[in-house]
Write the structure tokens for this entry.
Amino acid sequence: MSSLAELKVGESIKEIQLDPVDRITLIKYAGASGDYNPIHTIDEEAKKVGLPGIIAHGMWTMGNLSKLFTDFYGEGFIQDYTIRFKGMVFLNDVVTLQAELAEENENILRFNVRAVNQNGNEVIKGDVLYHRYAS
Amino acid sequence: MFKEHIGKQSNKVKNIVERGAVKKFAEAIGDLHPIFIDEETGKNSRYNRNIAPPTFPRVFDYGTIEGLNLPNKGLIHGEQTYHYERPLLVGEEITCYSVIKNYFEKKGTQGEMGFLVLESFGEDESGKIVFSSTQTVIITEAVRKVLIG
């Protein structure tokens, strides 16, 4: 889809399934974001706080989710992006990103967005208000 | 424990939306779209520049809030919001700061939890707010004990 204008309420942007989460991805995100909390990169540190192993940064998942909208920056932008972190993302998890158009109000499109793991459990959930430029 | 800090603001810090940092960030979230990294695409876009992904402000320095000592371990990120007036442009200077918006405690299944709400802002060179963000940090009982003790 080249334009969000074709999308109707109740329809979704084409979902994206991510590759299984691997260690290097989280190390890269730590470096790029400056978030070096060791529970995301060092097994021993994750275990110390009672986790079975390292977990992805919530902000990594939130960062990924926004790419559902990247193709549409020509016609608008993400005005509001609200996320609740609901579950943890572990190594080898396969995360799928989804966005459904929930409401359309003149130049504001409200999407329900979420990322689910391979078991169908929501790991993050929220909404995006996409501001469409007046043509 | 953090109640007395409500309303406190950090010092303002100037940040640059640096091209290399944007590229590295876009790569880290698997979103190497030309609008973020390709100069030609940026020039030909309505922004006349490349832009940064919406969660890029995670990278910025927001200064220090005096007296607020958060541990770097054992915090849970509960919620996060971003509000934008327009996208961030690659190369621009953004002045950032944070304010402690709220602190409250709740009893949960894992004991007494603290909720710290931080609001952050980014202003452009003319002093206009480009984005604001709100972050809710959950401080678990185990961490609270360490902080008090």
